[in-house]
Amino acid sequence: MKRRQILQQTAFAISTFAFSRDLFAQGGMEEFRVAKGGIPPDLIKLSANENPHGPSPLAKKAMLDAVSVSNRYQWDMNGQLREQISQMTGHTKDHVTLGAGSSELLGLVSLWAAYRKGNVVASEPTFKLWMPAARKMGLDTKLVALTPDKHNDLQRMLDTMDPQTKMVYLCNPNNPTGTVSPAADLETFVKKVASDRILLLDEAYTDYFDSPSMVHLVNEYPNLIIAKTFSKIYGMAGARVGYILAHPSTIRQLNEYQAWANSGPSAVSMMGAMAAITDRDFVAYCKTQNRKAKDLLCLGFEKAGIPFIKSYTSFVYFDSKPYGKNIPELLATKNIIGARSFEQNSTWLRLSIGTVGEMEKVVGLL
Question: Residue 316: which of 258, 365, 362, 268 has the closest Cα?
């Protein structure tokens, strides 16, 4: 199919994805504005798993410097950033495609899968931003419940696949639960799924605990597509830089679904991303601070009798029922927002990890 035909036929999907994205972006902020008469200056926002410490000093300087050249198209930067990413992951730049955050690329892959007509298998709950557009394009969603201890149920996902399954989506570590699958189990799962259908593996949070990545399998399995982002450990959520790793033949096919391949991030954002990769001290600092703040929160949960799931990410999933109070409302009394549910009729909530000082305020209030 020619690029022009693809772009004409995907216009509806792009608008649908934008609509679902805008709904997701609200994240409760509008309700808080109405209730409080505006956003207070001391607001503590713990809703979107944002890095409270970033961007790094090197990334900030690079982005400021890049403003002066942002009147030029970022053609050269595309290749430079892809080359830098490939060196970091042990691939070539032909294994990499860039986007405005990994969310845009999740939508791109689901759009590609939707043209094959069929269904996609995914966990419930998991990161769902891409799902509404996929359904609008005719890609039905088959959701598989997590295990009782809130892990992705890899075996049930395999059992749920049928001849019409065109794609499997797996977020590991999973969002919103923070759980991670053992490396051996995950690799077995990848080999079984990606042997004959698309496996979209979302690795947005692997950097926080060096969780197992499957990037070493992309050459062997062209159906494996791994999504990564600069939004989390690198602290660049608002800069919108993400990338996918896949076999070069797969990358070429996906690029046909972009009006201008790798054009999503701006020149300013890409300069920041290139600098962020080199700032290893800052990444190490973010990891350390995340663990300190999370340990503090989990200790507070233990003292308050609130069950929680061990997290390998920048958020914690916990059960508010034993506490006996409405935790989101309680936190909002001190301008702390973000605790919210991702399961229907459930008392389980997710809260992002902020700074150590912010978590001290949460624990003190609890």
Answer: 362
Paired tokens of 327: 């935790």
Return the residue matching tokens 């990545």: 213
Q: How far is C-alpha 329 from the chain's CA centre?
A: 27
Strands 224-229 and 44-45: unpaired
Phi-psi region of 144 (alpha: psi -120 to 50; beta: other; left: phi over 0): beta
| Sequence ranges of the domains in the chain | 3-7+58-278, 26-53+280-365
DSSP H/E element including 165: strand 165-171
Cα–Cα distance measured from residue 11 to residue 219, given in angstroms and rounded to the nearest whole number: 31
Q: Residue type for 179, please? A: T
Please state, in angstroms and rounded to a whole number, the distance separating the CA atoms of residues 94 and 285: 31
Q: Return the CATH number of 3-7+58-278, one of 3.90.1150.10, 3.40.640.10, 3.20.20.450, 3.30.420.40.
A: 3.40.640.10
Give residue 36's pLDDT: 54
pLDDT of residue 94: 98
Q: Given this structure, which CATH class describes domain 26-53+280-365? A: alpha beta
H/E stretch holding 316 reads strand 315-319
Is the CB of residue 167 less than 8 Å from the CB of residue 115? no
Long-range contacts of 260-265 (CB under 8 A, 24+ apart): 261/97, 262/78, 262/82, 262/97, 262/98, 262/99, 263/74, 263/78, 263/98, 264/98, 264/99, 264/100, 264/101, 264/104, 264/240, 265/74, 265/81, 265/98, 265/99, 265/100, 265/239, 265/240, 265/241
Predicted local confidence at residue 19, as pLDDT: 37
- At residue 133, the pLDDT reads 86
* Mean pLDDT of successive 10-residue stretches along the chain, which has 366 residues: 49 43 43 58 94 97 95 92 96 97 94 92 96 89 96 98 97 98 97 97 95 95 98 97 98 93 94 97 97 98 98 98 96 96 95 98 96
How many beta carbons lie within 10 A of that of residue 307, not counting itself? 15
